[in-house]
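Handoff note, outgoing to incoming analyst
You'll be picking up this chain. Sequence as last confirmed:
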Amino acid sequence: MLDYAEYLALKRSNPNEKCYIENLIYEIGDSQSAISMWNGYELESVFDIKAPNIKEIFSEDQWNEIINHVKESRFWLDNWRYSDAVCKAFANEGVLLKPLNNRPSLEEKEKTNGILKRTRTRFAGTYIGYSVKRLLYIVFQNAVIKKVSTPEKLFYATDEDIYGGHFLKFQYKGNGIDNIDADIRQAFKFSEITDDKNLVCLDIINSTNSVSIHARRGDMLGINKYCYEYGYFKRAVKFIKRKVADPVFFFFCDPGSVEWCRENYDIFGLDKNEDTVNFVDWNKGNQSYRDMQLMSKCKHNIITTSSFGWWGAYLNENPNKITCSPDIRINTTNSF
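Most recent structure output, in case you need it:
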């Protein structure tokens, strides 16, 4: 979905040029061992989006060669140099593209990082380091947000042949997503809910001051671990309770985390005896997207560092919504 938003931005900036999406990663699948493929490419099955695909300009044999080249590059072991691998594979088949999102190799990264930077990174992973970093982010928020703001690359106008390369930055502030908001909302329209469980849940969501909590653990636990350890959820829930009368909480988790969340109310600042809490744990497999749909229908949202939860919060159309994230850079109304 973030990739498709970038496609919309390039189309907006280059109205007379041919623009394609590229979803080659799904044909590589789990062989890259770095990110979960979940249910594969779903823009067409969920949203009926049929965007032009770069695959169309190659023969079947050429495309198989491209897939093999990208696999053999093992880009996921070298600082995720996906753009480099794809552009080289395309070049081998006679299509030359200028990549916008080149990444340094691990060797280059090690040279620039140095001992001081590595020590700083390890320190940031401790409670004291996290607290210092959080304070500095608040004090210097404008500079911090500016560092992830590159709208000139997302809305790149050119007559050259380019490869955007998956910036995934529209979830961050300062990248001009408002310019394509109408296009996004037109594209990402969910089909009507018809099954009994989700209809009952939707009725409760619509009739209460509903608050979604996206407790993304599983494959994202390494990134989101600090949210559970250092009080993020407690701060967010406390803020919601202060601003929202009689909130009703809805948990959305990866399947393996539901029971853990049930057993750890205190980590979320919730009380089993006092708070109204629901667990949405039945949307699985190719129906998983219904979780995002239900999150978008909640009045307010609490998310982790996860684009799935972020889209649920972004697509929420409540004009008075409170959306909470653990990072001041993420495009939500509040961060904690």
